[in-house]
Specification:
The complex is a heterodimer of chains A (448) and B (1085). With 448 residues, chain A is an all-alpha fold. Chain A has 21 helices and three strands. Among the domains of chain A are: 126 residues, Cytochrome Bc1 Complex, Chain D, domain 2; 53 residues, no CATH class. In chain A, β1 and β2 form a beta hairpin. Chain A starts with 23 loop residues before the first helix and ends with a helix. Classes of the chains: A mainly alpha (448), B alpha/beta (1085). Chains A and B meet through α13, β3, α16, α19 and α21 of A and β1 and α32 of B.
Amino acid sequence: MKKSYQSLEDNSTNNMIQVIYRHLASKIPYLGLVILLTFSTSLTAQEGDPVKGKTLFNTNCASCHNLDRKMTGPALRNVETRLEEEHGLDRNWLNKWIRNSAGMVKSGDAYANQIFNEYNGTAMTAFPQLSDQDISDILAYTAQEKVEPPTPTVGPNEGGNGSSGDGSTNKLILGALALLFALLAVSLILVRRTLNRFADEKGIEAVKKDKGLPIWKAFVQNQFLVLVTVIFFLLASAYFVYGYLSQIGVDQGYEPVQPIHYSHRIHAGENGIDCKYCHSSARVSKHSGIPSLNICMNCHKSIYQVAEETQQEGINEYGVDYNAEIQKLYKAVGWDEAEQKYTGVTEPVKWIRIHNLPDFAYFNHSQHVEVAGVQCQTCHGPVEEMEVMYQHAPLTMGWCINCHRETNVKVDGNEYYTKIHEELSKKYGVDQLTAAQMGGLECGKCHY
Amino acid sequence: MSSNKKYWKSVEELKDNSSIVETLKQNEFVNEIPTDEFLGDKKTLESSSTTRRDFLKYVGFSTAAASLAACEGPVIKSIPYIVQPESIIPGVANYYATTIANGFDFASVLVKTREGRPIKIENNDLAKTHNGANARVNASVLGLYDSLRVKGPMKGESAITWETFDAETNQKLTDLKNAGKQIVLLTQTYASPSTSRLISEFKSKYGNVRHVNYDAVSESAALDAFEGNYGTRGLASYDFSKAMTIVSVGADFLGDWQGGGFDSGYAQGRVPKNGKMSRHIQFESNMSLSGANADKRVPLTPTQQKQVLAKLYSLVVGGSVSTELPEHINKAVQNAASELKKAGSNGVLVTGIQDVNAQTVALSINERLNSKAFDPSTPILTRQGNNNAVTKLVADMKAGRVGGIIMSGVNPMYTLPNASEFAEGLEKTELSVSFSMKADETALNTDYIAAAPHYLESWGDVEIKKGHFSLMQPTIRPLFDTRQFQQALLMWIGSDATYREYIKSGWSGGSFNKALQDGVYVSGTFSSAPNGSSTTTTETSTQLKDKKDRTFLGGVIHDVAVGVGIKDEDKDEFVTTTSSSTSTTGGSNSTAGVAAISAGSAARNLASSAKSEGMELSLYTKTGMGDGQDANNPWLQEFPDPITRTSWDNYLTVSAADAKSLGLENNHVATGALDGSYADVTVNGTTVKNVPVIIQPGQAKGSVGLSFGYGRTAGLKEEMMTGVNAYPLYQDFNTTQNVSIKKAVGMHEFACVQLQNTLMGRGDIIKETTLEIFNTKDRNVWNKVPTVSLNHEEVEVTSPEVDLWDEFDRSIGHHFNLSIDLNSCTGCGACVIACHAENNVPVVGKEEIRRSRDMHWLRIDRYYSSEDTFAEDDTKKEEFSGLWGDKGSLGGFGELENPADNPQVAFQPVMCQHCNHAPCETVCPVAATSHGRQGQNHMAYNRCVGTRYCANNCPYKVRRFNWFLYNKNDEFDYHMNDDLGRMVLNPDVTVRSRGVMEKCSMCIQMTQKTILDAKRDGRAIKDGEFQTACSAACSSGAMVFGDINDKDSKVAKLKEDDRMYHLLESVGTKPNVQYHTKVRNITEA
């Protein structure tokens, strides 16, 4: 389906508001250009350019400040007017503060100290590289009126319009065809009746045929046919019963609704976060581990909402309010957004486990991930494309065994394998040993 | 003839014309059923929308829906941490060093925890100096998950909060103090410097405080003797690895004698090296583990033991005593004395007689011998109890002289012989508090039950031996609202500190964290107790140093031969070092200073005091139960006693001759189970009724034995209320008593796991030889590989020519072997429990055991000889000729079935032998059991359909069948039936279901883990990394596990050893478990 962008804002800068710093590297030339331009143009320009200011704000300030909410630092909407009205501080004070806040705190400036203490004694990073023009750009941006995000107007039915049109044409054709057939049938009946009338008038008697055996009686009397049919039915039902039985307990495609709608597509796909960043125990443990919530908070402390368009995309395509899902995380981990601190009131998230191996099968992630170097996707499928996680592989024993038969053991640079590889490859006369040849098909390797 | 009986249901019916009966006849129900009320209300009926048809529809629908829903798989929830602790990774085990010190068992251990749950106890390799984890210590982890633990402080029957407890007890203690009444602290032996310090502070705050150490099974006599001679209240430590001649008079030093833990040293000397091994002579009444392992065992009554000891003294040290010993014993004593004298400093004598004289004599004999194994300079401090103090306390309590009593780690209402007097005294106290994990016999009689934590939830420090410290740290957050005794003491003395801080503040032995991590610290000193007498002494100690400058603390030597100076090039030198240490005598311990008794007069007293008439009773502790505090532990209840092989019971052990004269019987019933008579046992007017009787080969005539630890009545599940309580017979804290025995009515049903007592001359099961033959003859003489006939020629059964099967190439990769040395195996059973814990082996209960349905993957078979020795059995069997007559096999085999009066005993741990040509594998119709390249015989439970063909075809009978579902089944209400108890399960091992076969897997989960760790690190595996639960638990070194394809490994070398043989080799199964021929040192020097 085509993505529909409802947002009024610029696409390129707004993929995700808060993770701009990840694109820092790519932005540096751009930033340089901006600074160069700033210096090349008139220095007298005190009226800032809010568009430039926005870029600068996102590059420099956004990791700690937001326009409308308190984060690591205070909210900055209308900071200039606010300071002037409430504390009588002018642009100069602001310039000094931005370029060297620590110095001002040290020098004993009253308001500087007040802010410093209010934010737990965290000094603001100094930005000596920002010119007056930059600062006025930024302040111009902060002085902008708040734009209410347009309420989504797209109904869930909207997507269905096109196809409903298709459906109606189909019905039309079908209706026409039905009419045609009806006409044909009627005309046939009429023709027959006319012919019969002719025959009656001419006095021709239709020869009564001797009524033979009805077909079902003939069938029942033919024992061979009955036998073949019975065998056929038995075989067919056996086939289906076998098929039914062998899928019991195989939950391929299992896609439960999770307590928090977590999108692997966004995290692993769009943001390209390594699987093992969150599932770190897959390296050392038999369990891949469901990440504890403090791992989530490593990023989500500053990512409190998704970008507009992502939000819209979620609502339109998946019916999910991503920002509300982030709020669920905050509730579970006990994060007070306003105060920017943990309340200590937590409630564990009861995820629904998707990949359930039976207890009698032993599986070790670290063996596969770390030793064998198997990609997570080999078993878990295209996780980076999954909006909702589902079970990709059947997780049956046949599936395991197959892979063990086909996959070569990664022996390079692993001293453990040196001797056994040499001996075994000689024994089997191959260069590359499969997991099966290494003993990966033995019952006791997985069942104990 | 019809009966005119009238059946009546109530007395009313007997009366004529009773109105009630009349009314009832008319009306079936006493009250009218309000049908009219319901049906008559038309309005309700009409307004109700649910018709009968609707109702039936709903029922039908919900039934269908429920059955449909049942077809779906369950939804499994996964709940991650909110904040994951850095050290915990789900799926990876963490190990913590801690110490068990429950008053009976003291050991430094490692605790394996998974996801924060302790699941297994292992030996702490850094604590080489003392005490490996025995069976009880291994099982102690299950005590943590005991569903009957007290979950919070209680006042009488009602639960209270700790705040209430604090307020009320503080008030009462202050009242008592102000009234000048005495407060008594009655505790187990803590051997803890910090606890001593705390108690001193408690004393100085509350003034009139008495601290009484109480050991349920007292070593008071030995302590008194040692204190009299050396000034410290402790027990001499012995290192049997340094002894070449060991004489024990009534001391079961491989069991729980003086705290136990001597078996690893003993076992080292038992392995013949360079033609030498130690010689062990045991004089005893009951058949004990030590007696079973002895080279020469002399059964004799406790009275005779005293005489023997006196006689030994006169022969070794000098002086004369008059004894009336039978000739054969006299001769044995003289031989023992001459052997001891000949051994000189390589000899050692120990005694278990609870008599100060006897203990003094033993000390002085060792002094005279200048025994290397005897070390009075680092006394063992794990027993501190004082009989006189306890006796005085009970008297004082009865007289009302005790105002308040605070108990911790003790259960006097169960363990005191005069428990009723104690109860009487308890009622006269104004305050009684019991720190207890259970609502046990004592706790139920106190005002307050202070819920105490398990040792795995506690802090602590223990000075096991002088200068050898062990630290205790929690390995899990307290499961319940508990508080340890020391923390309460801190509260009472008005300190805010936690006990951990308190311990740390007193620590002066280097880095506290390092010591905590290691679990042990040697030669550290704690700051002295404020009012204890602190003396700095300079001691001269001899430490064994070898040329590589390794100092073996506690004197562990690798090669006994080196110790006795056989190999000159490695000869060790004795370095005299001067070390300074501060010894702390807590004020609590110095009761009435014990005066030293002269050893000569002690010997004379001993000889003269030894008078007895009638039967004598020796009370002892069982390897599986100890003093009885773990009676609610199903692993220990089901643990078969190493000697009698009986679980779920204690019993009177009687010699065959005495049983005959008393009319006591043992029968095997049709199921093969054992039944025994009941007897009433009376000591000084105290009778214990209905004690089941087992006829014990080797029990000295005129003596009987009975173990402590059973017959508990409170704080345990009904299933565990087994056996009889022997403590009422433990009068004056003396383990030997004059006793009268009377047969009682009825037969007791035992749960005995070994039906066949003797080896029946089948010398190829346990191969044995003597040291002399071992040294002089070729291997083929004493360890011959069995032969079979091939083309009328005798061919060794190991030869491929006579093999039914083709051999697989097992030279690539790992090939695991387990080696079991029958010489160093003492039969202690630590491996059995370790296996239980590691492999989720279920407990099946007494009834099932009686049906031979025990589930132990590892059993320790115990065999008796029918003649005096196994060799004579073999000869007798060889010489059978014909069916009838003197040498006829018909009668002969019958005779062989009966063990001798003083048989030789052999232990043999048997688990799945992991045969390379396994008979079980060929008969499995579904290929559920198969062989791996690494030598392990695999068992795929999910594939097993339960035909049990494999068990029938197994020559070793090591396969176990799940006759029932043993988990989550109310019929088997042991630990696997409650959520708490299931926390001990090992998550890496499948919990088996009903109808499948199971058996030893050679701990494949452990070998696989070792391999995986190595793969991940990209390194080769070193020898010693591969372990099984049993080999890791074996502190005597009898079990060695490893990879025989690693030619440098210990186990590969053991495989080439001359003593190596396989069990039932003639069957041709090619097992991967090796046994090592038992060598006995029967040469009388």
